[in-house]
Amino acid sequence: MLQRRIFLLATAAGLAAPGILRAQGSPYVVGTLFPMSGPNAEYGMLFTNAVQLAFEHIKADGMLKRPIDLRAQDSLATPQGGAVGMQKLASVDGAPYVMLGFTGVSKAAAPIGTRSKVMMVNGGGVGPDLAGLSPYFWNVIPLVNQEVKALLPWLQQKSLKRVALIYVDDPLGNSVLEQLRKGLPGVGGELVDTYSVPPAAQQFAAVAAKVRSANPDAVYFASYGAQQSQIIKQLRDNGIRQQLLTYSAGSIPSVLSLPESEGLVYTSQAADWSSAQDPVTQRFVKDWRAKYNSDPSIYHQNYYNAMRLFGLLAQELEKAGTPVNGENLLQTLLKVRQFTFVGGEGTFQDNGTLELPMQINQIHDGRAQKIA
Amino acid sequence: MLFLQLLLSGIQTGAIYALTAAGFALIFGATRIFHVAHGATFALAGYAFLACSQAGLPWFVGCLAALLIAVGFGLAMDAFIYRPIQRHEGSFFTVFVAAFGMTIAVQSLIEIGFGRGFAVVDTPLTMARAVVPGLYLADIFWVATGVALVLFILVTLFLERTRAGIGLRALSENPELLRAYGLSSRRLSALAFGLGSALAVPGAVLTAATSGLQPAISAQVMLISLAAAVVGGIGSLRGAALAGLLLGVVENLVISAVDTQWSSAAGFVVLFAFILFRPSGLFGQAVTR
Questions:
Q1: pLDDT exceeds cutoff 90 at A262
Q2: Which residues of B touch A45 (CB under 8 A)?
Q3: Theoretical Cys-Cys bridge with B42: which of A103, A311, B29, B221, CB 3.0 to 4.6 Å?
Q4: Is position B103 within any domain?
Q5: Does B265 touch chain A (CB under 8 A)?
Q6: In the 3-class helix/strand/coil scheme, how is chain A assigned residue by residue?
Q7: Is the pTM of this model over 0.95?
Q8: What is the complex's ipTM, to 2 decimals?
Q9: Domains, chain A, with CATH or none
């Protein structure tokens, strides 16, 4: 009987041992909540590629003692997808750090992440209300109010006074509407007409007809994903020859490669790869070009920075011998504030944003060129 | 002038919707199979045309490739998915889940092959010109309306004047009787899938050139097809085509009176109106229980 008990105890100990070992060196779970299917899946791919490059750099540099386990949830770019995905990442996967994008997704996911003390980093959503959304929510992308603010002086300089706006009816589109409505009179301009469209709309010939009747000097569209390309193409096909304007979402490959995008102007954070001097940016650009045979976009920069931020914060916590959880990651961010990112030193503001210089780009022959 | 412009835009959109919905209506009308994968047929045809266009092949080669792929996919769905399920007396939901699963698989394959972004076939036919001051029209308008008109005349003649066409119409009513007349319900079912899938091709090609493609387009295609099939009268090809046209025109015209936001919703208001006041649709037959 005794022998049998010893045997059972030994077996139980043997079974438990790998578990204990695993607990000591268990990987850090990092979540991504990107649109991986549906009309905005192109963004999910862009974001994920950037996260993976940073992940490879963290691993190659031996920044952390433990490995990182990346867990992905498909947000579908919808608030509902964001809420469900965040719930899974926080409760099932136990991720203390989640990278996400899209304004609607972020706003839906933030309360769930906050409740579970998950640190959330956004590199793609630009709605102004993402500032100060939650103590656990941080942005590594300038928000759209900064983008519109950067565009207004250029509109004045080019005498583009009468602006029409096509905007997707969601938190992002409504923010752009508000910013233009407030900002244009200040530079002697006016918002001549506005056209809200549902996020799933695909036909814009009728909108083009209404734009033509309004006869603006320029047309600003605030949309994202496949819909932006549809708007550009259908406006041009239907005889709209005026200057087209948008925000940083216009920097995705499918917009750049569209022949009808020729001349499109969009704002973005400053990203001048050729003159970058700091080693972090140089390495990012060099390895990106080697891996993807193209220049990185601002989304690549942002999500590389988002993943790098986790590496830097977890490294600090490991040095201090404190557990890597959402609460400690947040405390470390608040303590350090300034980080070496791709694009230079970045300092987080109290409202959860990262102040970055802006630039205006124009598409020529399928490539974006800085014009201001 | 704005009203006329919106009407013409609506006719172009409606012609594409009509072409999109007709194939689904024909398959459902003949076989009573809820072919959700019709959206996948549409996507495959569109991307086949796009691939040929990107390879620099002439447009008619692209159309032929789209036709072969669409018909091949439709026939394969019938032979390898629906027929085995029906042999085992699978329910409506089994058929639905199988077709839905195939749609997701096709979407993933397209994403692997073509990426997840927007894609469009560039053609000068879509560039609108002012025909009179303030009224713009592109050549694709004539192509879309012309193709829709010719195809519906041909398909209607086929369904009404040929033995196979009449057999197709009878298939859903009484397969046993068909056998008595020496017609094979299996072959007729294959014909319905082949023809219905072929009907998705013009809509897919025109969409590739006008509003463009993206891998998740199947859902939108099915939404239009379903709405048109219900408004037109379940199983009625003529009804689905007319309803598709009606939905397109309503979507465009409505914004002369209300905010552009309500454009897509207006089509579905029409759908609800039909469900409430004329559940049998435009050309459907009321059934008593």
A1: yes
A2: 115-116
A3: B221
A4: yes
A5: yes
A6: CHHHHHHHHHHHHHHHHHHHHHHHHCCEEEEEEECCCCCCHHHHHHHHHHHHHHHHHHHHHCCCCCCEEEEEEECCCCHHHHHHHHHHHHHHCCCCEEEECCHHHHHHHHHHHHHCCCEEEECCCCCHHHCCCCCCEEECCCCHHHHHHHHHHHHHHCCCCEEEEEEECCHHHHHHHHHHHHHHHHHCCEEEEEEEECCCCCCCHHHHHHHHHHCCCEEEEECCCHHHHHHHHHHHHCCCCCEEEECHHHHCHHHHCCHHHCCCEEEEECCCCCCCCCHHHHHHHHHHHHHHCCCCCHHHHHHHHHHHHHHHHHHHHHHHCCCCCHHHHHHHHHHHCEEEECCEEEEECCCCCECCCEEEEEEECCEEEECC
A7: no
A8: 0.82
A9: 24-141+276-356 (3.40.50.2300), 145-270+359-370 (3.40.50.2300)
Kindly state the percentage of chain B with pLDDT values over 70. Answer: 98
Residue carrying the six token digits 């990185």: A296
Q: Taking CB atoms and an 8 Å cutoff, what residues of chain B touch A41?
A: 111, 116, 215-216
Of the two residues A361 and A19, the one the predictor is more confident about is: A361
Confirm or reject contact between B211 and chain A (CB < 8 A): yes
Residues from chain B contacting residue A205 (CB–CB below 8 Å): 9, 12-13, 252
User: What's the CA gap between A299 and A54, in Å, rounded?
Assistant: 13
Residue B252 falls within a domain, yes or no? no
Mean of per-residue pLDDT scores for chain A? 90
When scoring A237, A292, A297 by the number of chain B Cβ atoms within 10 A, the one with the most, hence best to mutate, is A237
A41·B2 Cβ contact <8 A: no
CA-wise closest residue to A298 among A322, A271, A320: A271
Residues in chain A with CB shorter than 8 Å from the CB of B214 are: 39, 226
Between CA A344 and CA A356 the distance in angstroms is 9
Whole-angstrom Cα distance, residue B258 to residue B261? 8
CA A140/CA B202 separation, integer angstroms: 45
Count helices and strands (H / E) in chain B: 12, 2
Q: How far is B219 from chain A (nearest CA, A)?
A: 9
B194, part of any domain:
yes
| Amino acid (1-letter code) at residue B17 | Y
Q: Which domain holds residue B193?
A: 22-216
Number of domains chain B is built from: 1
B103 close to A (CB below 8 A): no
The C-alpha of A42 sits at a distance from chain B's nearest C-alpha, in angstroms, of 5
Separation in Å, CA of B141 to nearest CA in chain A? 11
pLDDT at A22: 43
| B6, part of any domain | no
Q: How far apart are the first and last CA of chain B?
A: 49
pLDDT at B165 > cutoff 50? yes
Q: Which of B118, B216, B260 sits opposite A195 (nearest CB)?
A: B260
Q: Kindly identify which residue of chain B lies nearest to residue A205, measuring between CA atoms.
A: B9
Is the predicted pLDDT of residue A34 greater than 80, yes or no? Answer: yes
User: Which residues of chain A make contact with B264, given a CB cutoff of 8 A?
Assistant: 198, 200-201
Which tokens go with B14?
């409606």
Does B264 sit within 8 Å of A200, measured CB to CB? yes
